[in-house]
Amino acid sequence: MVIRMTNIRIETILKFMTYVIAGIGFISVVRYASLSYISAFLIITALALFRDFSHPFVIPRWTVNTTALMVLVIAFPRIDMSNLVLPAIDALLVLMALKLLESKHPRDYFQIYALTIFILAGSSLLSLDMVFLAYLVAMIFSLGAAVVLLTYMSEEPDLALDLKSIGNIIGKTSMIPLLVLPATVLLFVILPRTNLPLFDFFIRAPKGVSGFTDEVQIGSVSFIQENEAVIFRAHGPKIPDAFLYWRGIVLDKFNGRTWRNSSKLPVGRMPFPGKGQIVRYTIFLEPSEQPYLFTLDKPINLIYQKFNQYDDLTYTLPNIGVRRIRYDQLSALSKTIPMTNVNKVFYLQLPEKMERIQKLTQSLTEAKQGPEKAQVIMDFFQKGGFRYSLKNLPITLHPVEEFIFKYRYGNCEYFASAMAVMLRTIGIPARIVGGYRGGFYHEMGGYYIVPQKNAHVWVEAWFDGPGWVRFDPTPASLDTITGFWRRGLLLQMRLALDILQCCWNASVINFDLQKQFSLFIEVESLFRKPLTVRWPEIRTNLTKIAYGLAGIFLTSISLILIIRWPAPEKRIMKAFQKKMVQRGYNRNPSEGLEEFVSRMKEESLKSKAMQFAGIFEKGFYRDEKITRRDVAVLRRLLKDM
């Protein structure tokens, strides 16, 4: 029995490529689209696949057009100035599926490709993560091949080719995007840029991404502390864990259940946060609807445009939108803010019925003075049988009192609130600070990864002399890596992907007008500098190159020795058996080579196969060395077969 390769119609390959292109567009927006529209897309696309590749059936065009019009009518009322993109993406998904369901002429294919491009462009308005680059590259290469196949089909609709020819067409047309890649990179660098968020009004901000608002109800941050999404990355040196407090908001008004941020006016100059090692960080803050800019405690200065700064060492950015924010900040590693005058009455405000807490605090601190009182309260929480928990938090009318005297478990809000209230009952001004605690330091990238789950609140107490002093009564230290981050191999993969994402954010997303000018200035300075030969630098660079090449060579040799590539005769035998299977002959595992060849019916094939067997058995069975000439003859015989 002889198996011959059958030709495949160009139209069939084109349909397959079209579904691949549509699939790329769908995957790029599936996490944003509405569930009902996703379901409609999948159902209609399944019908289209059944129609195109299994049982063709005719659908009148007026039916498809009427359905498309109904989709637009349904989607239109959902559109408003705060939500333009998502309804459009939902509608485009269903319209693309309807086009797949139609009988396809060349213009229909082009319409499908155009819809897919619009969908991918819509996904870029919602997110420009590094994965968008993968979707874009896949789309460009797929479209290039599909358009060329469409040209063939337009000239000759019934054209059919073998797989090798089709593979050559697709492979060569896939090289076309590589030719325009240098021009694309050049245009990206030189086109004028603006820092204005021109497209922010298209996008609806995700809800609750930052975790902190102007008021925090006791127990509410626990939902944020179970979220492992990254909130920001901080590029800078590694520092002791005791100083890893990322300041965001100060809460100073308490009504018994909720802490609020008092309305205050921005200040022109920040108070100096005291002595301590000065460090600089570059923060990449993920998209957020909250206005707070997080800084390493205690901040000295922040470098960005049009932000507000306050005397409690916090910063806000009006109209933050949903874009990534990059800013630089200087901090002093200190636990104190040397502020001499504060409104003591304001920071001693408490709701009624705090007598029981006051009596307990007085009994604990009666023999202590100043900061010693705060330390005694710290010890009370850390050594008094309290435990840290995020589950089944006690939500009552009097959460602080019942936390201290009844439940004795809770998250950081309970501990910080209880300590701040106890300090106020004995006349010590206190407030709580919201932000993030800790972070995982990426050694290779040189930056901290701070997830949402590290949301934290702590206490600042004021004493005459040192000023505001930080206290953190929460007994359990927050984990910096949980869930996905804990697994060994997955951790390494996650870190590798994260550094790629970080480079993408810094080099592409945040490539702004300032960076553009800096790049132009650097390039211009290269042409202005006189050409000087610095032999020490050249010698050092040549030494590094030599060591690098030596390392690559040794690594390659090691891999060759470890992998142990199969001998030429084994590779040739594998190719021979594959060739025979294509001609309809399968060799049994226990069958000798000559016995196998003797079963062949075609004399020309049998003659060449017998010559092949004679040369091969000389080296494999008679321990005679197969020379390079023999290998060449075997390969020629294979080709002739």
Features of this protein?
641 residues, alpha+beta, 6-stranded antiparallel sheet, 49% helix, elongated
**Distance between the amino and carboxyl termini:** 16 Å
Radius of gyration: 35 Å
Strand line-up in the sheet with most strands: 10-13-8-4-19-18
- Describe the main β-sheet briefly: 6 strands, antiparallel
Query: Which of globular, elongated, flat, extended, rod-shaped describes the shape?
Result: elongated
Count the domains.
Answer: 3
- Structural class of the secondary structure composition? alpha+beta
- Estimate the helix proportion, in percent: 40-55%
Counted by DSSP, the helix tally is: 20
Count every beta strand, where a strand is a DSSP E run of 2 or more residues.
21
Uncertain residue ranges: 195-210, 478-486
Q: What portion of residues belong to β-strands?
A: 5-15%
Q: What number is the mean pLDDT? A: 78
What would you note in describing this structure?
The chain is an alpha+beta fold. The protein has three domains: 183 residues; 272 residues, no CATH class; 73 residues, no CATH class. The protein is elongated.
Question: What is the topological layout?
Answer:
Elements: E1 8-9, H1 10-29, H2 35-53, H3 61-75, H4 85-101, H5 106-126, H6 130-155, E2 160-161, H7 163-173, H8 176-190, E3 215-217, E4 230-235, E5 245-251, E6 253-254, E7 258-260, E8 277-285, E9 295-296, E10 299-303, E11 308-309, E12 315-316, E13 325-333, E14 336-337, H9 344-347, H10 355-365, H11 371-383, E15 387-388, H12 399-407, E16 409-410, H13 412-425, E17 430-437, E18 440-442, E19 447-451, E20 455-463, E21 467-471, H14 488-509, H15 513-528, H16 535-563, H17 568-582, H18 593-598, H19 603-620, H20 628-640
Parallel strand pairs: 15-16
Antiparallel strand pairs: 1-2, 3-7, 4-8, 4-19, 5-9, 5-17, 6-7, 8-13, 10-13, 11-12, 14-21, 17-20, 18-19, 20-21
Helix pairs in contact: 1-4, 1-5, 1-6, 2-4, 3-4, 4-5, 5-6, 6-7, 10-13, 11-13, 12-13, 17-20, 19-20
